[in-house]
Design a protein that fits this description.
By secondary structure, the protein is mainly alpha-helical. The protein has one domain. The protein is built from seven helices and six strands; from the N terminus they run H-H-H-E-E-E-H-E-E-H-E-H-H. A hairpin with an 8-residue loop joins strand 4 and strand 5. The protein is globular.
């Protein structure tokens, strides 16, 4: 199978400075990321700092295997970035998205109730169950993120080629589960850890794994 037009476009622009030149808006976006983490560190909100880093690390993991899909199929990744960008890191990840994910984990944890054991009671709407609030927010946030991706796909900025990973009844569920839900679950799990050293160990393990995989597949083998 030949690569799709979006795949060819991404490969042609992968990790190169765009013809339009360096985009200065990247600098203020990066400054916003630095500021957000600096505020949390200043206030010693380690739960939020490490949850944000875990969220970012999980995205790097996803972007790595997604790029490998293109390499092994020689057709398309599950998702491909299209259109203008300041810098295309992987076929499905540009610098703008990367900076967004660096901020998103902190933002999502700010929505969490303080009591991790509190359950959302659905009996008032005649559903006789109580949902743990972490799972409710993880699923709800994931659905919201996928809704945004559907809009990006409709705008032609994010390309989906496979029917099982697309804006249809069958394809939308894998995007929710494997595209975002595990980001939320791992991030909230790290957020709720009682021991700081455990947060450090988990986040370090995620990021070290990511950087080893990226170094191997991109730097040594040139697969992504």
């Amino acid at each position: 199978m030949d690569p799709t037009p979006a795949s060819r476009y991404a490969l042609d622009n992968l990790r190169t400075i765009p013809e339009s030149g360096f985009e200065w808006y990247i600098i203020p976006l990066f400054a916003i990321v630095v500021y957000m983490y600096a505020v949390e560190i200043e206030q010693k909100n380690w739960n939020r700092v490490f949850a944000g880093l875990a969220f970012f690390g999980m995205d790097l993991f996803n972007e790595t295997w997604n790029a490998l899909i293109l390499y092994f199929t020689d057709y398309a990744a599950f998702w491909t970035c299209a259109g203008q960008t300041g810098f295309l890191i992987f076929v499905g990840l540009n610098i703008e998205i990367s900076l967004m994910f660096a901020m998103a984990g902190i933002g999502f944890t700010k929505m969490l109730p303080e009591d991790k054991n509190w359950k959302i009671d659905l009996t008032p709407i005649k559903i006789p169950i109580k949902i743990p609030n972490r799972w409710a927010f993880a699923v709800g946030n994931s659905v919201f993120c996928v809704f945004v991706e559907v809009l990006l796909n409709a705008a032609g900025a994010l390309i989906w080629e496979y029917p099982f990973w697309n804006a249809n009844i069958i394809g939308i569920v894998p995007i929710i589960i494997f595209g975002y839900l595990h980001f939320m679950v791992v991030s909230f799990w790290v957020y709720d850890m009682e021991q700081l050293k455990n947060k450090v160990i988990v986040v370090a393990a995620i990021l070290i794994f990511d950087f080893i995989a990226i170094g191997l597949f991109a730097g040594v083998l040139g697969w992504i």
